[in-house]
Specification:
The chain is α/β, with parallel strands linked by helices. The protein contains 3 helices and 7 strands; from the N terminus they run H-E-E-E-E-H-E-H-E-E.
């Protein structure tokens, strides 16, 4: 008489998920903490708000205009005449560079328009006025 043994079910291999979950949570905490410390450097201004604003990702020339109407290029205050010559040299280095004007929302409109006119006269082909995304 032939006796057949019953086959046992094989145990499935289960990787240790506890260690994997711990690592995922540590990475999540790390990225949450490091992204909160990214601060944009520059002149302290309050940008006006707009509903349809989107971030710029190209290399740009940034001109800051503070609440008193002073113009800053690369964190140095410049009078309008000197701003014109500095912008000309920067625009000639990269002819298709983007010029962004970050004017404080409380600045007198005439000062911001004067800086825009200076940038346009210096040869800025693409000129933008920076805003914050509104609620």
């Amino acid at each position: 008489m032939l006796v057949h043994r019953k086959k046992r079910a094989r145990y499935a291999v289960q990787p240790p998920l506890t260690a994997l979950i711990d690592i995922v949570f540590l990475l999540l905490v790390y990225f949450l903490l490091t992204t909160n410390f990214i601060v944009e450097e520059g002149i302290d201004i309050n940008l006006p708000q707009a509903e349809a604003s989107k971030p710029q990702v190209q290399q740009e020339i940034t001109i800051y205009v503070d609440a008193q109407g002073r113009a800053f290029l690369e964190n140095t205050e410049l009078p309008i005449s000197e701003l014109f010559t500095r912008l000309q040299t920067l625009i000639q280095q990269g002819p298709d560079r983007l010029v962004v004007i970050r004017a404080d929302r409380f600045v007198v409109l005439n000062k911001a328009v004067q800086v825009m006119d200076t940038a346009k006269a210096a040869g800025a082909g693409r000129l933008f006025l920076a805003t914050e995304k509104g609620l």
